[in-house]
Amino acid sequence: MKRKFLIVLPILFLVALAALLARGLQSDPRHLESTRIGRPAPVIVLTTLDGQSFDSRTLTGQVWLLNVFASWCSACVIEHPALLQLASQQRMPLVGLAYKDKIDDTRGWLFERGNPYSSVPVDLDGRIGIEYGVYGVPETFVIDAAGIVRLRHAGPIDNKFLAQLEAILAEQGEKK
Amino acid sequence: MNDPVSQQSGIMPEHHERLRQLSTELRCLVCQNQSIAESNAGLAVDLRQQALEQIQAGKSDADIRSYMVERYGEFILYKPAYSASNAVLWGGPFLLLALVLVLLVRGLRRRNRAVATEALTADAGDVLRRAKLEERYRRESHD
Question: Do A126 and B43 count as a contact with CB atoms less than 8 A apart?
Answer without folding.
Answer: yes
